[in-house]
Amino acid sequence: MTDMIQATPSAPAEPSSWFGRFLDSDVWASFKRSKLTMAAAFLTVLFLAAAVSAGFLAPQDPFDPAQLDLLNSRLPPLWDAEGQSPFVFGTDEQGRDIFSAILYGLRISLAVGFLGVAFSATLGITLGLLAGYFGGTVDAIIMRVADVQLTFPAILIALLVDGVVKSVLGGQLDAATTLAVLVFSIGLSFWVQYARTVRGSVMVEKNKDYIAAARLIGLPAPVIMFRHVLPNVLGPVLVIATINLALAIITEATLSFLGTGMPETMPSLGTLIRIGNNYLFSGEWWIVAFPGVALALLVLSINLLGDWLRDALNPRLR
């Protein structure tokens, strides 16, 4: 009698790399299902690539006065009868190429946005960990400060911090110092969301068994907070950071539009819109229209990514 050996199908091997695990995750599957999210991601990557490659793509360095010619001022876009090459989107009152100014302005707007989010996230996460882990007086002080700040709009906080810092440092600041002041003021405007979110997550996590085991073996509080608790609360933080990136870019543009942001010699998208607004009713619409469209598309694409990420990381929607 012959023994019949039935082969048992083997389970598929688990991906060994983090990238392979990501491609097999629900997040990637959700991303592929949403055409709108894919379009938003493409636009965001396109803007980032354009900002990084501004030195190669731009036909002119708008920050170099030696490359500006007043004879080329207020030229219309290239498709207009009076347009001239290589000024595709026309020029402003200084003879600055609008397309080049947008590319270099993207650099500044994105730099302020990313640095502002990094600063606010670092501050908010740290304060949230302290408030949630230690509780008591530490928690009460941090949360009361957060409650007071929530009563004011973020733009007013940014204006207040920006004005105070500039009055302390002096009215005339160079472009690098102005950028640092913008990052500082925007960062102080958005830390509350991180702190409150992290605090709530930490208050849940600190009562779990792995935290009790870490305390039992004598690990210090900073190690427990940053090595064990923090990785388990990063999901909501990532969503907040994505959405706050768009808010930080809008806040910087608002400050620049109000005249308290980047100077005209090193303009961001908000500064370009403020400059173009002075010539809108005289017929030079392109000076404000193209930077405005670029800013709107950039913020819209980041917001769409943030909305998708919020839904993709929400276990109740899976």
TrEMBL record:
Family annotation (Gene3D superfamilies): MetI-like
Protein origin, superkingdom: Bacteria
Protein biosynthesis recorded as keyword: no
Keywords annotated in UniProt: Cell membrane, Membrane, Transmembrane, Transmembrane helix, Transport
Any one biological process term the GO annotation gives: transmembrane transport
TM region positions: 36-58, 110-135, 141-161, 173-192, 237-258, 285-309
Membrane topology reported for the UniProt record: Multi-pass membrane protein
Annotated Gene Ontology cellular component terms: plasma membrane
InterPro entries: BP-dependent_transpt_permease, MetI-like, MetI-like_sf, OppC_N
Entry annotated with the keyword Transmembrane helix: yes
Location relative to the cell: Cell membrane
Residues in ABC transmembrane type-1 domain copies: 106-306
Family as reported in the entry's similarity comment: Belongs to the binding-protein-dependent transport system permease family.
Full protein name: Peptide/nickel transport system permease protein
